[in-house]
Amino acid sequence: MRRPNALLVVLALTIVAVSGPATAARDTLIVGMPTDVPIFDTHKATGLHNGSILNQVSEPLVRLTTEGTVVPWLVESWEQSKDGRTWSLHLRKGVKFTDGTPFNADAVRFNLERFRKHSIGKATLAMVEAMEPAGEHTLKVTTRAPYAPFINSLGYHWIVVYSPLQVQKVGDENLHTAPVGTGPYKFVHHKRGQEVRLEANDQYWGGRPKIRAIVSRPYPDVSARLLALESGDVDLIFHVPPQDAARLARNRNLAVHTPASARVIWIYLNTQWGPFKDKRVREALYYAIDREAIVKNIFAATASVLHSPGPIGAYGYTAQYDRYAYNPDKARQLLKDAGQASLAFTIHHSPGRYLLSGQVLEAVQGYLKQVGVSVKIVDLEWGTFLSCRRSPSRRTSFRPPTSAGARPTATSTAPSRTSARRSGVRRGTTCRSTRVTSSTGCSPSSSPRSTPRSGSRRSIGCRTS
Q: What region does 163 belong to: left with phi over 0, alpha with psi -120 to 50, or beta?
């Protein structure tokens, strides 16, 4: 089947975090995050912007390294049947949810079924045909056909486990108010817009945590987040602009960490809309953007150019394929050949959630303008952005950085009309292509930024997480 999306400006990111010395003298870690936690139920989340906090409460079955290596976690080992369709998952023994509920095969089946019912990422497990416990600590999963990356798919960041008893107790719709997992920390409270508090799980299967409590506070403004760290109000912050990271590294009281990341950023093109149906147009847009300049000038070399949709370590990834190196002359010729020398379109974007997103888009806008393409940037609230991105009328959208987790299906099941139907997601009926009907609509004419904002970098960019 023809894929309805093309990916433009594909970059891999490095996450920059900075920590201070305060935790050495205290047993509470205070973290400054870019946003508040949207929802404490990953099966129903539309984005895991604070996954580092969520994953302290609920855990995955396996973990994936940035190189794509599968690390056993709550699933300790597995075997595949000779016909390639049945997987035997052997679960870690001695694990309990923090409410005392046993972690067993029934609990895993319950969570996988719940994920397949609710999650917008449910297509990740679309290949599953049946699940059946084979004893207390073994779950047999049968796929519709042999599927080699099945274990890899279990590392998807939305696939975690919650206590079935807690879901029954509070109700499926209310789990986010009091989640119970197997993780090193227990959920205490979430004061929306103020803080999230977690306390150590002394019975954690991996050993008692050394830090007794974690408090997460939202600082949407980068400057405020930096000030909170430097003044000692918080101990750790994420998503530090590269230029500030260099300055903070010179502070003896702070430590800058730049771990490798599987996060990828891109721009989606709806290949079933008008000009984007023409391969020459899509190729022209790719040739028009200098991704190396984006990495150098906006990310200060803390990102890297990717030559395939998935991150380094994903199935099929290659660093040898650079077919679309920056070539504005070729871009102009392709547009001319396609009869689109004066192409114009809109890119939807949700501002303020991700580091440098505005600079990235304005840079892309500038590059495309140089080859005769007019781009209007429409800023939308996050929920509206998601609806628009899934709408059949959507032409382009600036995808938030996401962790593809070294899974090829992360992009093959990205927001297409098929995957939206499969996941039960509404396709954004408020999104229109011709005119704006409200200030939150996703019409190409709503809340546009057709020129860069003052003080913004004009190089070329893609957004950071």
A: beta
Tell which residue, 223, 238, 197, 189, has the closest CA to residue 29. 197
CATH topology for the 17-44+181-257 domain: D-Maltodextrin-Binding Protein; domain 2 (3.40.190)
Question: For residue 258, what are its two tokens?
Answer: 């730049």
Cα dihedral across residues 447, 449, 454, 457: positive or negative = positive
Q: What is the pLDDT of residues 174-209, one digit of tens each?
A: 999 999 999 999 999 999 999 999 999 999 999 999
Fold (topology level) of 5-13+261-449: Dipeptide-binding Protein; domain 3 (3.10.105)
Structure tokens at 89: 């998952």
Quick: pLDDT tens for 4-55. 445 554 554 455 566 666 544 579 999 998 888 878 899 988 766 667 788 8
- What is the Cα 336 distance to its own chain's centre? 36
d(CA 360, CA 44): 29
Inform me whether the pLDDT recorded for 434 exceeds 70. no
- How many residues does this entry show for the chain? 465
Supply the pLDDT for residue 418: 39
Question: For the stretch 4-34, what's the b/e string if a residue is b when 16 or more beta carbons lie within 10 angstroms of its beta carbon?
Answer: bbbbbbbbbbbbbbbbbebeeeeeebbbbbb
pTM, 2 dp? 0.74
Separation CA 404–CA 419 (nearest Å): 16
Domain parsing of the chain, residue ranges: 5-13+261-449, 17-44+181-257
CA distance 86 to 150: 10
Pairing between strand 344-349 and 374-379? parallel
Burial label for 191, CB within 10 Å (0-12, 13-18, 19+), is exposed
**Of 190, 186, 195, nearest to 233 (Cα)?**
195
